[in-house]
Amino acid sequence: MRTPLLVVTGVDATAMDAAVLALSLDLPGAVVVRHRIDPATQVLTRTVSDASGHLETAHVELEHACVDCALREDVLPTIEHLARAGRWDAVVSCLPVASEADQVSAVLEHDTRLARHVRLASVVAALGGEVDAGGEDVVEDLLCDDDLADRGLQTGPDDDRGLGEVACAQVELADVTVLTGGSGPQLAALVGALARPEAMLVTGCAELDAGALLAGRHDHEAAVAWMLPTDDEPLAEPSTEQTGEARAWRRVLVSHRPFHPERLVDDIESLGRGRWRARGCFWVATRPGDLGEWSGAGGQLSIGTWQRWGARTPLTRLVYTGVGEPPAGLEEAFERMLVTPEEGLLGTGSWRVAEDGLEPWLGEITDVA
């Protein structure tokens, strides 16, 4: 029998601990494992406990202080060990702060040996904030331009990820988001717009239904497809009764035309800087085989090559989400950066170049004939 696994993510250690405590109290037969990364010493600390009390604390020196190394070297092996022990009804894993659950989910989806012992039931994103602020602090975290390092949340010296980008992605991947510090209308609207349509939003850890979460089954493919959409299916406007600054908005920019490499480099700030969450896929005329990933929040933007398009039809699709008044000019900026129909008539041969100026972000061109 496979042991169900609950994974807790977040960028606020206090919020994550509150969610883990609530789950452990509701699941007396579960074992809880917490992982923390010290970016200065590059040491991963693992703490294991159950209803009987503290069971273990161990310190693991990482080859690199990063989430990937932590997952590979200790998080996943520990989850497997606890699941195979046969002593507990469930495993609750509190990932290192600023970790995303997609890596754990991907391994459990594709590693048939591990999947024989562990079933990823649900992913929980825990958000903090002050009740008196009506959730405004969390809205700022989701849409700010701070790096993780600005808040002391980086995993190592090379961790230059944006706080908002990580926090938004955690919500998008989660099966349930818990607002541990209360919620104002603006926060509820924003999180509701970021989360997958089938995901749950609860206010306060007391509202977490541990039994329902254990009975669930995390859908890895659906979660990744929501965070990185690669189709042209329409998305409805976020459902909200709020108005003004508390109203959530969504804009979907989609085209089967690629970006023009020079115009993308020159004008990327018009699509990258703003108080919004942006996610999606794109392709560039000089790199027709590469599926690019577009991810950012609050003015921070990351682009990179995710994988090859393969048999899929290349698509440029960016999804923008925010609160308040939607920004003007997004559609026009998007259209400016696309290859025009007239340029496309020149034929693909004219786009075969050795360099296009995007190498620092997308790597070397591999589609050169």
According to CATH, the fold-level topology of the largest domain is Rossmann fold
Mean pLDDT: 90
- CATH top level label of the largest domain: Alpha Beta
| Proportion of helical residues | 25-40%
- Give the assembly state of these chains: single chain
Approximate strand percentage: 25-35%
* Span between termini: 52 Å
CATH architecture of the largest domain: 3-Layer(aba) Sandwich
CATH superfamily membership of the largest domain, which one? P-loop containing nucleotide triphosphate hydrolases
Pfam families: CobW_C (PF07683)
Protein name: GTP-binding protein
Based on the model shown, name its key terms:
5-stranded antiparallel sheet; P-loop_NTPase; Hypothetical Protein Yjia, Chain: A,domain 2; 369 residues; CobW-like_C; GTP-binding protein; alpha/beta; Rossmann fold; Zn_Chap_cDPG_Synth; 14 helices
Task: Describe this entry's structure for a reader.
- The chain is built from 14 helices and 13 strands.
- The protein is an alpha/beta fold and 369 residues long.
- The chain has 2 domains: 3-221, P-loop containing nucleotide triphosphate hydrolases (Rossmann fold, 3-Layer(aba) Sandwich); 244-362, Hypothetical Protein Yjia, Chain: A,domain 2, CATH 3.30.1220.
- The strands form 2 sheets. The protein has an 8-stranded mixed beta sheet with strand order 4-3-2-5-1-6-7-8, sandwiched between helices. A 5-stranded antiparallel beta sheet has the order 9-13-10-11-12.
- Strand 2 and strand 3 (43-50) form a beta hairpin.
- The chain starts with a strand and ends in a 7-residue tail after the last helix.
- The mean pLDDT is 90.
